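Inputs:
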Amino acid sequence: MTLKELGEFGLIHRIVPRSGSGRGVTLGIGDDAAAVIPTPGLETLITADMLVEGVHFDLTLTTPLELGAKSLAVNLSDIAAMGAVPRFTLLSLAIPPTFSLELLDPFLDGFTSMAQRHGVTLVGGDTCSSRAGFVISVTLMGEQRSDRIIRRSGAIPGDRIYVTGTVGDSALGLTLLRRGERNGGAIIRHLAPLPRNEAGQLLAERGMATAMIDISDGLAADLGHILTQSGRGATLFLDRLPLSQEYRDRVPALADDLFALALSGGEDYELLFTAPADRQEEIRSLSAAVGLPMTDIGEIAAASGLLFLSPDGSPYTPTSRGFDHFS
Amino acid sequence: MTLKELGEFGLIHRIVPRSGSGRGVTLGIGDDAAAVIPTPGLETLITADMLVEGVHFDLTLTTPLELGAKSLAVNLSDIAAMGAVPRFTLLSLAIPPTFSLELLDPFLDGFTSMAQRHGVTLVGGDTCSSRAGFVISVTLMGEQRSDRIIRRSGAIPGDRIYVTGTVGDSALGLTLLRRGERNGGAIIRHLAPLPRNEAGQLLAERGMATAMIDISDGLAADLGHILTQSGRGATLFLDRLPLSQEYRDRVPALADDLFALALSGGEDYELLFTAPADRQEEIRSLSAAVGLPMTDIGEIAAASGLLFLSPDGSPYTPTSRGFDHFS
């Protein structure tokens, strides 16, 4: 059955059972707006991301299940980067009339299962037709105490720079997908990223991070955002970059430079954060507790500028600073 | 200059000055998420609408200034229909790389000026490129006391049904635009709708409305939503429908049926609400105070079903029940 046959109200009725009457929701899908009760004393964090067919995803390379999960995951990652607790989401879809339920249902399954995993309730959104591709727009609200919210602007000279997990896998995965491969860890990292909400929230609640961002544009570009907003510089040691075995095995045959993809490839959805040097032990414990590596890759400097040091100690110049949607 | 030349960060820097540090905003555009302080004791209302080029708008028929204002207005109308106060908005744009600043700047001007008029602060969003048309996704948050929020589900038998302003003008305007006309009140109503936030908020604060919705799908379809969710029926008197002089002058030459467009044409963005019969005088006063007609067009019945009565008292069957995006 196509969306055209189903109709707009049929579609809405397909989405409603996936929305919830979770904690704090007084009015879900079905009125002019949703109504939720903010937790007293907390600030509301709010973020939105749009995913456009042919720009952010290719339905011949991703399954609709993965796409549904990823469209919420990229927003969860933004809330993680603030150290906040995700709560409520709105899902807006512009759908080609010929789009089939065989695509839509697993897409919604992926979205809903990612929402459930993170305790997020779907409360609203919009559906309309698209004359071009499939367009997904997700809004996510979260909450946190004012004094725990972690901004990009708080990095202090002497702070260590940490990154969770491994970097560059998503960009490697996309490269492999475009070369016709369909399996492997890097491809999964690209198609089905797992946002680091538990880590982000704990870093905030324990007051360990001074600045934080999620890696969506690429490590170098996203570190640049922290440095610009903190008015600082940094030194980054390339030999400390956490690279997966698959990355180390595959990249040498694909590129002249082992580090370029890890520095400039986007969509890792790892957390990049700064913390005082004396919190090192606590970060090690937290990393072990949540089962997620947190690697010290550099140090914040007082003077502006981002210096990359090669394994041999010589300065390194990255080939690209990240991903610009309009370039 | 095209967006491709400007680049994503250039675009964001173009939007940031239009965002604000309004009351309650602790973190605006420029971090992973925005942070706002909910007013203690109020519920948060949240709504999202997507506008897609070629489906919702045609850049050869609308100016970018009107489109920017309308993309927020349709969300303001949803918040008005809840009786809530609009507060914070997020604007996400998928933009063709060849889109020019001559289109983008006035679009943002229209959006910002509508935001300012309603005391709304732009706090975030997303920008990306589109391989197809221009896609606009707006999220709007509002606030209201729990006991004042007006749902669709509260209509009670004996309640009078009111509609603000006049109906059918937007649909007439679209018809005229498609016939090559470019001027006149109906066309303005279609391209530059004015949401009824002052009226909606006052109806809520004075506890006058039992159910409310904004007319986006068409009067008949939107009344149907109130009836379904209230589990009631209604009688609607067609001779009471508030039709503009332009509508009465132009429609007879365009259609066999004077009422079809007023009943099924969408995008009026007027408020449709129900209120106890004994509040009639108060509604008349409120209408005069805000300078917006509020016309009693029918009555809620206990039994389900929507009965339309023609001016001669005979039953009338509408030709269409509204606008379905996928039909």
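The domain at 160-316 of chain A is CATH 3.90.650.10 (Phosphoribosyl-aminoimidazole Synthetase; Chain A, domain 2). Flag for discussion at group meeting.
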